[in-house]
Write a structure and sequence with these properties.
The protein is an alpha+beta fold. Helix content is 25%, strand content 21%.
Amino acid sequence: MQPLRPAAGYTTIEALIAVVVLAILLAVGLPNLSGWLSSTKVAGAVQFYAEGYAMARSQALANNAASRLVFSRNAVSGQPDWQVDVCFPAAGQPCDADSERWSTLEDEAATDGTVGVAVRSVRRSAEALPASSLMSVELPAGASAVYFTPLGWVDSGPATPADRIDLSPASGHEDAFAPASLVLTMAGVATRCNPDADDGDSRRCPE
């Protein structure tokens, strides 16, 4: 007669130990995971706006035309959407803020038949970005657009340029992630910087 063997499987004590270990891992890991996810989302937001700057500059260079990057509030996330418009100047009709020669999402930029390039505006939605209740996205005071010359340089003439974007935790979420900024050089190139870096640190944003 074969001796009886214990039934296979976990005992109650083993199950309790597993639960305790899992609870400890969650307690230690969840805050780190949450911080990692927040940092990842912020990095994505920085890239989202860097793409806007880069596209506006490249459209100016590619079409030998003026371009602009225009920001507008997204109704879902509360963060700025962006749109790139193109304008071919004509005699007596500069590509200023009030010009009717700018492209739109529906209409091509006015060319008067002298330019064989059909260009429409490009828009990107900020709906997928962290909500404004979690992340603050700030433009320079009074700025909602930045203009580029046909050479890709920043044109400061038409309006106060939106040449900097500051991303930081919203009120009540101060420790969620480290602030980051995008700064546009006069040459039209966007660079990421750290607004909280110490003086002398190469990562510090220019004043």
